Amino acid sequence: MYLDFCFPREIEKAKENRTPVVLVGGTVEYHGPHCAFGCDTLVAEGLVKKLSERKEIIIAPTINYSPSSYAVGDETTGTVHVEENVFEEYVYNVFMNLLSAGLRNIYVVIHHQFEQESLMPMTLSYMKAGKRATMAYLEKTKGRGWWGSESYKDYYENLGGGDDPFSWIKVIPTMSTAVQNATGYDHAGKYECSILMSLYPDAVKLDRIDDIKHWFTESAREASRELGDEMVEKSLEYLENRIV
Questions:
Q1: How far apart are CA 207 and CA 209, in angstroms?
Q2: Are 137 and 169 a contacting pair, CB within 8 Å?
Q3: Is the pLDDT of residue 163 over 90?
Q4: Which phi and psi (to 5°) does residue 238 adopt?
Q5: Taking the alpha carbons of 217, 218, 221, 223 in that order, is the dihedral positive or negative?
Q6: How many percent of the chain have pLDDT more than 90?
Q7: Distance between CA atoms of residues 206 and 225, nearest Å
Q8: Is 7 helix (H, G, I), strand (E, B) or coil?
Q9: pLDDT at residue 129 is higher than 80
Q10: Which segments of 140-184 are extended strands (E)?
């Protein structure tokens, strides 16, 4: 189910059932001459779409323009980078509105700069915005001193669960460290091209790999749909268990 196509009745049901609301954190980033600029976005969107065929989730609109960084190529390459402080404020407002609507089970799924689940600027922007929004929402609705009130005397017993407010918004990778170790992970190389080929074959054109030489794209010559299918399946198994 897509949030764009929901009506109030669907939102009320989602609140009642704590249906996961899944938002893809995408990028517009240079991935060599052979991969589409939306590579990171497409991988995450493709996996989330497949996940929706396995379990009930609400797919929120993707956020494409983000802190992609100019680490791979500057602005002349087609990469679109939004400064972290500007982006964080935008996402903070998105989260505030979702929380105000009564949604309490929100996931941001990212495929950009999440090697070994390391915390890079874009991921941290989402995480910080999520915690800020949660704190601001609680103070707005419950007043200052909410945590110290008697109504939160079970706070520690609820940590990590649905009644823990700081679990309302979770930022996770498309591929956990375990999945990355099992299959491989790179930027526009053998592994990323393979998973993108599995999900969106038209987004990879290996015959263009020699248009521009890069060290990080050389291994893409070994990319295959078969490897991509394996990566997709392992990623879906992880996401199915992680998004609850």
A1: 6
A2: no
A3: no
A4: -65, -50
A5: negative
A6: 96
A7: 12
A8: coil
A9: yes
A10: 169-173
Tokens at residue 34, please? Answer: 């052979």
Query: With contact defined as beta carbons under 8 Å apart, do 103 and 166 qualify?
Result: no
Token pair 């893409």 is found at 220
Report yes or no: 216 and 35 within 8 Å, Cβ to Cβ. no
* pLDDT tens string 169-222: 999 999 999 999 999 999 999 999 999 999 999 999 999 999 999 999 999 999
CATH value at residue 166: 3.40.50.10310
Q: Which of 10, 12, 42 is nearest to 25 (CA)?
A: 42
For residue range 63-104, list pLDDT tens digits in order: 999 999 999 999 999 999 999 999 999 999 999 999 999 999
Residue 170 DSSP code: E
* C-alpha–C-alpha distance, residues 141 and 31, integer Å: 44
- Residue at 197: amino acid letter: M
pLDDT at position 169, please? Answer: 98
Q: Which residues contact 233 (CB under 8 A, 6 or more apart)?
A: none
DSSP three-state, residue 34: coil
Q: C-alpha angle with apex 217: 211 to 223, nearest 5 degrees?
A: 105
The Cβ of residue 107 has, within 10 Å, a number of other Cβ atoms equal to 20
Tell me what pLDDT residue 162 has. Answer: 77
pLDDT at 199: 98
The boundaries of the domain holding residue 56 are 3-242
Number of domains the chain is built from = 1
Is the Cβ–Cβ distance between 232 and 50 less than 8 Å? yes
CA atoms within 13 A on the CB side of 65: 8
